[in-house]
Amino acid sequence: MAPRIPNPLGAPGDLVKALGHLPDIARATSSMSQDTELLAEVQRDMAEVARKMEGVTSMDAKMATIEQTMPALVEIQRDLHNLPDVIARLDDRIATLSALLDELARSMEGLQGSLTPLGRLAGKLPGGKDKRDSKPDNARPELEGEPDPRS
Question: Is residue 133 situated within a structural domain?
Fold first, then answer.
């Protein structure tokens, strides 16, 4: 077969067909125009989203810090689980200590009460402290053979 020779009269028919699509092209172009106008609003909204996302960045850093401290928090939680037992043992020991301190205080009162009569008895013995003696309690006793400087 031989190559076809183009028909020069067929060109206006193709042109008429193409011109029939112009209203569709105009509608699509109008729609694109409206969509393009919305792009400015989308751009403003995206800027607002970006501004609000700055908080997420700092929150992400805080979450990373929490994640790093998690092992220590788990260990503390284990220790806190044992805390009631430790406090109960401590309470028992404090009660025992309190009872021992009360007993010691009673013993000291009894000891002091038994020493008072001994002190009176010692004051009546020769060389004992006489109430008329005005020496202060912290004065040094005289060495034997030395004269009393107050006399």
Answer: no
Measure the CA–CA gap between 87 and 95, rounded to whole angstroms. 12
Residue 126 lies in a domain: no
pTM of this prediction? 0.34
124 alpha carbon, distance to own chain's centre: 70
Q: How far apart are CA 151 and CA 143, in angstroms?
A: 15
Q: Which domain holds residue 74?
A: 21-120
Residue 32 near residue 25, CB atoms below 8 Å = no
In the predicted structure, residue 8 carries a pLDDT above the cut 70: no
| pLDDT band, very low/low/confident/very high, at 82 (cuts 50, 70, 90) | confident
Q: What is the pLDDT of residue 134?
A: 47
Q: Is residue 111 part of a domain?
A: yes
Domain tally for the chain? 1
The CA-atom distances, in angstroms, between 71 and each of 61, 68, 80, 134 are: 17, 7, 14, 74
Residue 136 lies in a domain: no
pLDDT range class, residue 19, cuts 50, 70, 90: confident
